[in-house]
Amino acid sequence: MITCEAKVVSNREVKPGCFLLRLICPQIAQSALPGQFALLRCSSGHVADPLLRRPLSFQDANEQTGEIAFLYQVRGKGTQQLSRFGVGQTVSTIGPLGEGFQLKLPVGPIAIIAGGVGIAPLAYLARVAYRQGYEIYTFLGARSKSSLLADPGLVTVSTGFFTATDDGTCGLKGNLVQLLQTEMQTLARCCSAYICGPEAAMQAAVSLCTDLGVPCQVSLESMMACGVGACLGCTCRTTRSTNYSRVCTQGPVFDGREVVFGDNTEP
Q1: DSSP one-letter string for 224-258
Q2: Does the model's pTM come out above 0.85?
Q3: Of 115, 222, 240, 258, which has the most beta carbons under 10 Å away?
Q4: Could you tell me the CATH number of the domain that includes residue 126?
Q5: pLDDT in tens, 157-203
Q6: Domain coverage including residue 265
Q7: Of 97, 124, 157, which residue sits at a domain end?
Q8: Is 114 helix (H, G, I), strand (E, B) or coil?
Q9: What CATH code is carried by the domain that includes residue 83?
Q10: How far, in Å, are 55, 111, 181 from residue 162 at the CA level?
Q11: What is the tally of structural domains in the chain?
């Protein structure tokens, strides 16, 4: 775990209310893995307001340039303030934290399944998997074309790229689960699936993957205070034990079959 004052390279709005933040922090860039996250301080100056840092999954980490990137949606005071950081300012950053995704062997086709801003950690995973020889099939869901976060790099590395929007402005008219049901034969060919998005969509995707015999991993979202497992503020129910699991240290990535959906702390 590293703490650094990371300089802002860019912080631009890529879709309405969604920003891509790029920071320079070579120490974190060298060790961050897909699915891990960092805690970012969203205030500047000496007054910490809001007090709690915001947990954001790595959208990218580049060892050569020393850059780390985060795709985030403005949802409250913290992320609103973060969106105002300009080039040259510094963001107090702690990371990498948590358990990341595990690419399963043998190398074969994998499914990337994302709803909304859940694409962030999966875009990073897809780039890493592609370099290791995995074939990528991507399934994205959003409300409309204007909010579909179709990373150009993700399109490039994907053998199959499928989209669904609620209003039908891009791809299938319907939700992410309906898209998976439509492309069930493609999903069934995958040796593993990686899922992130709204809880209801993840639950349905896990159920479908389980029925098809496709192992899957999910990335959970939760509000966090300490980020290192001490405060127990980000717990979720899993089948690992009778106790709650800590999203910050035992996750945020879990085996999809372990998660007890519908009984977890809301972010």
Answers
A1: -SSSSSSS--SEE-BSS-SSPEEHHHH-BEEEGGG
A2: yes
A3: 115
A4: 3.40.50.80
A5: 999 999 999 999 999 999 999 999 999 999 999 999 999 999 999 99
A6: 221-267
A7: 97
A8: strand
A9: 2.40.30.10
A10: 28, 11, 12
A11: 3
